[in-house]
Amino acid sequence: MSAKLFWKQFWVLFTFSLIGVFMIIPTIEITLSQVLKDIPNKPDLPLAVLAGLSLINPIILLIVAIVIAIFLTPRLGLKSHIVENMARKTKLWPSLRSDINQAIMLGMTVTVIYYLFDLIFQQWLPSSFHLNTQSRSLVVTLGGIFYGGISEEIMMRWGLMSFVAWMGWRFFQHGKNRPKPWIMWLSILISSLLFGVAHLGANTVLAPLTWFIFCRMMLLNGIAGIVFGWLFWKRSLEAAMMAHATVHIVITKMVWLKAMV
């Protein structure tokens, strides 16, 4: 790969990632304001500065994920239509269009599972976890669509899942042929578990951590991670992104329709 192509791919993916990062700033500010209420010695910094500082780690992780996956994904048979478009001058829209229906359908399936779980077990959940128009506001939804749908997918699928798959491929197949299905499934499961763990901070902000909340977090995010990982493996990074974004769009739509009834 030429240095010119590498930097072109890097900057396109990084720019998309930053859009997602910036879109979650309002949500972070809301969360920080709630957390700071319970802290006796609050840091003497504006809320916007604290929110900006909290984004340093995600940005570093995004850079690492993008760089790693640009080199690893072609060897594993994993792809991004945007990256392929820059490398091979393929037509972008027909490739994206072929993934839309399946991505949206699977995203809606994940949403129904999530919604039904919280509906059934609502009485065991703290009120801060209840789905309502405040918890699914436009600001929260946009943050989920762009940060979850773009930035998290680049970190967890494009970067982490690709790296785990590459490690398994190198160790068990010595880098020969394409990774076997069981290696890909292992990478999907591991990245899905870590995807669930990555939501620990957001869950502990809402309420004290209990075994029920922990299991809910791992189960629902694990299911979503498996679906998004499978789409990345079988379709593309963009398919995983579209499915992830669909979850946030549909669940907000369901909550608002319920509130209107």
Automatic annotation (TrEMBL):
Keyword Zinc belongs to the record: no
Xref: InterPro entries: Rce1/LyrA-like_dom
Spans traversing the lipid bilayer: 12-36, 48-72, 103-125, 145-169, 181-202, 208-233
Keyword terms: Membrane, Transmembrane, Transmembrane helix
GO terms for biological process, alphabetical: CAAX-box protein maturation
Keyword Membrane found: yes
Residues of the CAAX prenyl protease 2/Lysostaphin resistance protein A-like domain: 137-248
GO MF, one annotated term: endopeptidase activity
Protein name (database record): CAAX prenyl protease 2/Lysostaphin resistance protein A-like domain-containing protein
Source organism of this protein record: Bacillus smithii 7_3_47FAA
Species lineage: Bacteria, Bacillati, Bacillota, Bacilli, Bacillales
